């Protein structure tokens, strides 16, 4: 049984060597780096030292030279290990120290053969340090640097490939994310437009296209608040098509619908941008005029009445008519202290206009026009 010192930085390699040699009955000492190995070698006088020829902390040459320089130190047999890429230079350097060189990674048989061969010979006599040439060692270092440079180049190439692959994956993910964002934005826009269309449908009369009664009631509250703050007035004009039932009874409901559509279009054309035109129900329409002086409201009402008389409404190629309207006007705050009260006043005025013979305007109980 021999005492063998294994100096190896990599734990997995160290365990492999130690286990293999112990299984052959050797007493195995181990160290993780050269300085620790020197202390063990001085204390234990091993028969063989196995060491990496170009270890990072202390390589085999430094180890052997340091041990050789210690007075009275017993020189062990040396086995230098190293990669095949530096084998020619490493063998020459190993001979200078009287050591054997073992290419790694090696199989167990090769290792045991080299160790057994070393144990079967007397301890070597290395060349004196003064006569030992440093050129093989320098060539070994140069070979290692070249090997490292090639390794570094390979690693850089691998890194470049990985970066390119990562960038490609990121580009795919980014494109997919952009597509998903676009889809969501499109869906959001579609939802917004759908909601707008639904709200528009909910606020407009489907037949005439003007606002409906629901929108009217929501708007009048806002308009009242606005004129209260400004101190102005709010005119509400309720307009009813005279004898509308006659059109439905004589010409049919389709002709009546044509009259209602024409009425809605006319009122929208005649209204100002800030006016609100609504279909209140059946053949009744409401026109809301905000911030219009009393005389302007009355003039507008009479002008609308006369304009309806001049409408030429066609249905199935022939004129429908003549068409006339009656209108009732209520003005806030003259005819009520709220929009509800003013709307009732306008409705009452419209009723009075009907009672007086139709085709006329009544304002808060006072008739205007024919």
Number of domains: 2
The CATH topology of the largest domain corresponds to Alpha-Beta Plaits
Query: Which segments are poorly predicted (pLDDT under 50) over 5 or more consecutive residues?
Result: none
Annotation, overall tally of beta strands:
13
Structural class: alpha/beta
User: Strand sequence of the main sheet, in spatial order?
Assistant: 7-8-6-11-12-13
| Proportion of beta-strand residues | 15-25%
Look at the structure and give the CATH class of the largest domain: Alpha Beta
Q: For this structure, what is the CATH homologous superfamily of the largest domain? A: Reverse transcriptase/Diguanylate cyclase domain
Please give the CATH architecture of the largest domain: 2-Layer Sandwich
Could you give the distance between the termini?
138 Å
Q: Main β-sheet: number of strands, strand sense, barrel status? A: 6 strands, mixed
The backbone outline, from C-alpha atoms, is: rod-shaped
* H and E string: EHEHEHEHEHHHEHHEEHEEEHEE
Q: Average the pLDDT over all residues and give the rounded result.
A: 84
Q: If you had to describe this structure to a student in words, what would you say it looks like?
A:
The structure is a single chain. By secondary structure, the protein is α/β, with parallel strands linked by helices. The chain has 2 domains: 3-132, Response regulator (Rossmann fold); 213-368, Reverse transcriptase/Diguanylate cyclase domain (Alpha-Beta Plaits). Helices cover 55% and strands 18% of the residues. The protein has 11 helices and 13 strands. The strands form 3 sheets. It has a 6-stranded mixed sheet, sandwiched between helices. Helix 2 packs parallel to helix 3, helix 4 packs across helix 6 and helix 8 (244-251) runs antiparallel to helix 9 (253-270). It starts with a strand and ends with a strand. The model has no long low-confidence stretch (mean pLDDT 84).
